[in-house]
Structures are given as structure tokens and as C-alpha cells.
Design a protein that fits this description.
By secondary structure, the protein is of the alpha+beta class. It contains four helices and eleven strands. 30% of the residues lie in helices and 30% in strands. Strand 3 (104-108) and strand 4 form a beta hairpin. The longest helix is centred in the first third of the chain and has 22 residues, at 45-66.
């Protein structure tokens, strides 16, 4: 029966115009390719291969120079960022601007592999007072809707943020560390 079909298709091909014959032959060749190969590779394997190569190169560039994948370890930013949660850091976020109060940033503390996530609360020149369960910036209480675990600062502590430095602290005040960091220690802004 298979040879019968091929004979009929050859006979039909004799009566078609050249352009119709090419289309007919390509349709016939398409039928011979298993469906699962067409789903994976498509009708034009060379174009599919080119797309895959471009996609891989693009992903390598994005994840090497623009976005840094991270995994949160620890509870200092809970409940905003919980332990084990994956995230991305935008390395280009502060290319043309400076961090703002409230931004969550990734900090280079011990090298490229070990980073901290902290919230910027103090800008260069700010006077910071940590008293009780409140943070005061330049004599005004800081509104912090993201703090669920306020903790207590003992004893009362005062800081003046130096030029080219930022003051950072975690959202979970029971277990967080806080400090001034230099601007070059900021890797980027956490995306979400």
C-alpha cells in the first residue's frame, strides 16, 4: 500500500506546475517527519538552532553583567524576604542614580559569593538615632510599614552617615545587623 501511495504521488507530481510541485513535495516531506520532532525543532531546523544559540548567548550576557541571581539565607529581612527565597539583583539600577531611602540593596561584604540584603535608611549626611523600637532620621521618626518585628535597640545609638556612605538595616529588627556601608559595596537593587 505504501508503494501504491508513492506511485500515485509521483503520477500527480507530473501534472503540477513547478511551484505547485515544490509546495506539494514539501507538504509530503512534512508528513514523513514524526510530529514530536516538528514540535521540538519546527519546520526550519536551521532557524530554530539560530534562535536557540541567540537565546543562550543573550541569557549568558544578562545573567553575567545585568541580573545577579541570589538566594536569601537568614531571617534578617523577614517577612519581606524569607529564608530560601530566590531573587534577582539589578546591577545597573544605580548606574545613573544613587540609592534612595527604602531601597532594598544587595551588599558585597565578603566577596562576590556572600552578600547581604539590607534596606537603605540613611543617606550621606543624615543623623540617625536608634532608640527603643524606633528609628529617627534627622530628628524625625522614620515611617517603616515593612517592619513587622520591631525589636528594641539597646542602648540608644547615634550615627552620622559619612559622605559616600549609606546606613543599612534589615527589616527583622530582632536579628538584624546594621551599619554604614561604602557606596562601592552596593552591588545593585533587589528586583522584587
Amino acid at each position: 500500500m505504501c508503494s501504491n501511495l508513492k506511485t500515485k504521488s509521483n503520477e500527480l507530481g507530473m501534472f503540477l506546475m513547478p511551484s505547485e510541485k515544490n509546495r506539494y513535495m514539501s507538504l509530503e516531506a512534512e508528513r514523513e517527519v514524526p510530529w514530536w520532532i516538528r514540535v521540538i525543532v519546527g519546520r526550519r531546523p536551521s532557524r530554530t538552532l539560530l534562535r536557540v544559540v541567540l537565546l543562550v548567548i543573550g541569557a549568558m550576557i544578562v545573567f553575567k553583567f545585568i541580573l545577579l541571581p541570589i538566594r536569601v539565607i537568614g531571617q534578617s529581612m523577614a517577612p519581606t524576604y524569607n529564608n530560601g527565597r530566590p531573587n534577582l539583583v539589578n546591577r545597573l539600577a544605580y548606574l545613573g542614580s544613587n540609592p534612595r531611602r527604602g531601597d532594598v540593596v544587595s551588599l558585597r561584604i565578603i566577596g562576590e559569593r556572600h552578600m547581604w540584603l539590607k534596606r537603605v535608611i540613611g543617606l550621606p549626611g543624615d543623623r540617625i538615632l536608634l532608640q527603643g523600637d524606633r528609628v529617627w532620621i534627622n530628628g524625625e521618626p522614620l515611617e517603616e510599614p515593612y517592619v513587622v518585628f520591631p525589636g528594641r535597640f539597646r542602648p540608644q545609638q547615634r550615627f552620622v552617615v559619612e559622605p559616600h556612605h549609606y546606613f543599612v538595616i534589615g527589616d527583622n529588627r530582632d536579628v538584624t545587623e546594621y551599619r554604614q556601608i561604602m557606596v562601592w559595596q552596593i552591588v545593585g537593587k533587589v528586583l522584587f
